[in-house]
Amino acid sequence: xxxxxxxLIIAIANPVxxxxxxxxxxxxxNRPQGKDxxxxxxxxxxxxxxxxxxxxxxxYFREDQKARYTLIRFLSPKDIAGTAFLSIxxxxxxxxxxxxxxxxxxxxxxxxxxRFHRFVNSDFIYEDLERHYPPKYHHELLKEEPFQGDPCYxxxxxxxxxxxxxxxxxxxxxxxxxxxxxxxxxxxxxxxxSKRFTAKEWKKIQGYWTVLxxxxxxxxxxxxxxxxxxxxxxxxxxxxxxxxxxSLERW
Length: 251
Fold this sequence. Notes:
Elements: H1 2-13, H2 21-29, E1 36-46, E2 52-63, E3 67-76, E4 84-90, E5 95-101, E6 106-110, E7 137-147, E8 150-159, E9 169-175, E10 181-187, E11 193-205, E12 208-218, E13 223-234, H3 245-248
């Protein structure tokens, strides 16, 4: 009887159903986002002085058995209109990224150290737009706490190989319902807090959890990039040919 009580106490203290950091990372990675979607969005660049630049864009998404595809097409203002970005995140962890610049009439593959450059002068770098395949990183569940009223897992992740990230590590607040990252603190390789991603509004649309308003802040430069979705429609049967390198140049 005593042995049974000891085992019961151990089981209560360490419940078998508790998720590990790696399991949570996989649930984030595989979070349902529909077969496809099309979003009408706005990107606002906000300087330390409060000056703002607004860009409009459309964001296309599609998933099949091979990969998840994301296409961002900027519509305005004139100096960026036609610029397009294509990400192909294969389910085996590989990823291809391409940027089309209409002024040069040229498509560039994003690879190597260029992954750590800023994406169209925003506070996101190309690495931030990657899907982050869980086996490439270590994951540790630090605690559980609410963020903006929603219960969250707080998970620390860091790269197994230095070349895979410009960051030393990052800490994510991930909602228990839907496994949506709603805050990410990004630390540089010296352990200094560098940037912070914060979701301002999220809700379920057509059954899929969706961040409708968010910002990425460069804490050193005091500069922010705000993203807002004005409209999004899921599962409408987008043409697969949209998500090709060739389609980037059709403007």
